[in-house]
Design a protein that fits this description.
Layout: H1 3-17, H2 19-29, E1 50-59, E2 73-79, E3 81-85, H3 91-97, E4 107-109, H4 115-118, H5 121-129, E5 141-145, H6 149-169, E6 180-184, E7 188-193, E8 196-202, E9 212-218, E10 221-225, H7 233-238, E11 244-250, H8 252-261, H9 266-274, H10 279-289, E12 293-300, H11 307-313, H12 317-320, E13 324-327
Helix pairs in contact: 1-2
The protein binds zinc ion (2 copies).
Residues 72, 114, 116-117, 228, 298 line the site of one zinc ion (ZN).
């Protein structure tokens, strides 16, 4: 097989069979990272395309580190648009495991700027840019978020300036992809195109203002992502009749049990419960909105992804909400 033919096969395997297949093929051929799969001037593989609104949970975790649950991030794919909602640490790893190359993300949306939601941004920005010997973004990265997004992501970009200049000079990354464009909004239409409408709305994350959630409408399907929030009327309004509501939650029973064992954790626990939603409150929101399917994410405290832990974590929820309930796991697809 010629070198060029070999590359074609690798790309085909990656696109059709996922990262595991691609990785196995690469190690057989003794190749290294993704950057060596495409030569300069060669077109990168086409972005993932989904005829229907598709959601992939990339990270269902929280600020406490966990090998089982990456920090918050969700991919929403509608046609050729790939939206990344939040970009916590580990997002690039999870994108690859979901067979999405970082440069295939077309829009990055933030719900708010707690560190667990943006700590993967630097890694994502550089790896989605690539350039030279790897497939990369040749245009500015489109970033959307609440009205402090330019200020905060701008500072993350400032700390990358030195690295960015080196990559343009030394690694021949395309300068066209070295920048970010911002759209800041707390309410209204965030994006509209090719039949996809993304609506942003304010949520109630206590002192964390601004904080927002997102609604995606595409080809008759509606998905709502709550972001971090207390139970909130605006989420009920936006999620009315939604197919899928992805809502953050904590288990009140688990937190109270922990405080019984460790009374010193009382203040910390009260703080968490003060600006998040319990599983029961999220279930009430889902019932009031009449959604079909409630998916929990941002799980506090995060249960090991084994069904009996997760069932105990969410105990009592189905007494309140009678639709489908799923305790989210990283890389679940809806
Ligand atoms: Zn938060
Ligand atoms: Zn959070």
């Amino acid at each position: 097989m010629t070198d060029r033919g070999r590359r074609r096969v690798l790309l085909g395997l990656t696109a059709a069979g996922g990262v595991m297949v691609g990785a196995a093929a690469r190690s057989r051929l003794g190749l290294g990272g993704l950057g060596q799969l495409v030569e300069p001037g060669e077109e990168p593989p086409a972005p993932p395309f989904r005829e229907h609104l598709t959601v992939i949970l990339l990270g269902t975790g929280i600020p406490l580190p966990s090998v089982h649950r990456s920090r918050p991030a969700v991919a929403v794919i509608a046609g050729a648009h790939v939206f990344l909602v939040d970009c916590g640490a580990g997002t690039v790893d999870r994108l690859l495991r979901a067979s999405i190359w970082p440069h295939q993300v077309t829009h990055v949306l933030f719900t708010h700027h707690h560190n667990d939601h943006n700590s993967g941004f630097s890694d994502f920005f550089i790896t989605s840019w690539g350039g030279g010997a790897s497939p990369g973004r040749k245009t500015p990265l489109k970033v959307y978020g609440p009205t402090n997004t330019r200020e905060i992501i701008g500072k993350l970009m400032a700390h990358l300036e030195w690295d960015i200049s080196l990559r343009v000079k030394q690694n021949k990354f395309d300068p066209g992809g070295a920048h970010v464009t911002y759209v800041e909004r707390d309410r209204g239409t965030m994006f509209e195109g090719d039949g996809v409408v993304v609506t942003v709305f304010p949520v109630d994350h206590g002192i964390v203002r601004p904080a927002v959630g997102y609604r995606f409408d595409y080809r008759g399907r509606r998905v709502v992502i709550s972001g971090d929030t207390r139970p909130c009327d605006e989420v009920i309004r936006q999620a009315r009749g939604a197919d899928l509501l992805i809502h953050e939650a904590y288990s009140k029973r688990w937190i109270e049990r922990a405080v019984e064992d460790y009374p010193k954790a009382r203040d910390l626990a009260n703080g968490i419960m003060g600006y998040h939603s319990s599983t029961f409150e999220a279930a009430e929101v889902a019932r009031a909105a009449g959604v079909n399917h409630l998916v929990f994410t941002h799980l506090m405290p995060s249960p090991t992804p084994v069904w009996y832990f997760e069932r105990d974590w969410a105990a009592g929820v189905t007494d309140i909400f009678h639709g489908q309930v799923t305790v989210g796991r990283d890389l679940m697809v809806f």
